[in-house]
Amino acid sequence: MSAARLSLPLEGRVAAQPTGGVISTPAAFVVSSADRAWAAAAAVPDPEIPCVTVADLGILRSVEIDDHGVAIARVTPTYSGCPAVLAIELAVEAALLDAGFEARIERVIAPAWTTDWITAEGRDKLRAYGIAPPQKASNSVRALFGETQVACPQCGSGETERLSEFGSTACKALYRCTACREPFDYFKCI
């Protein structure tokens, strides 16, 4: 795989000398095209939960540049029936095209996505948005059968109750905090 090297904007560069000297670009300001492609794809927000990106959710598996300069993004759907998977793939492709790449999206179904792939930053973003992030234990029998204690994203109380197994999307359940009385979604553990 060949990797073209591109320079970042002029911030932090040494200016050209009036005597005809060359612009010096520190190594920290040079990024590969694969890094640029990853950054473009990773910034795509999830269409159902726009506070997090596809990278935050862990569904953007990789981005590589092939020998012909095509950015290949690999995406794993959250589950096989996810209605947003095509929208996500099209948005990632559009982001890569907007960044100046030819693009190809590959859907990767194995290994299956798990909520354990959500980044710590993604969990923080969910909480700040008012969605309780999943417990980090997708292989736990308690998590799989909804016996998980869910902390309220508003006040942090563990005194919560499930109102419905399904919330605003199939991957979320509807809860209510008995301390602050606020309803909230819980991103189910998968």
From TrEMBL:
PaaD zinc beta ribbon domain ranges (all copies): 139-188
Gene3D superfamilies: Fe-S cluster assembly (FSCA)
PANTHER family, per the entry: 1,2-PHENYLACETYL-COA EPOXIDASE, SUBUNIT D-RELATED, FE-S PROTEIN MATURATION AUXILIARY FACTOR YITW
Source organism of this protein record: Aquamicrobium aerolatum DSM 21857
Protein name: Ring-1,2-phenylacetyl-CoA epoxidase subunit PaaD
Boundaries of every MIP18 family-like domain copy: 39-97
Alphabetical list of InterPro entries matching this protein: Fe-S_Maturation_MIP18 (IPR052339), FSCA_dom_sf (IPR034904), MIP18-like (IPR002744), PaaD-like (IPR011883), Zn_ribbon_PaaD (IPR056572)
Top-level lineage group: Bacteria
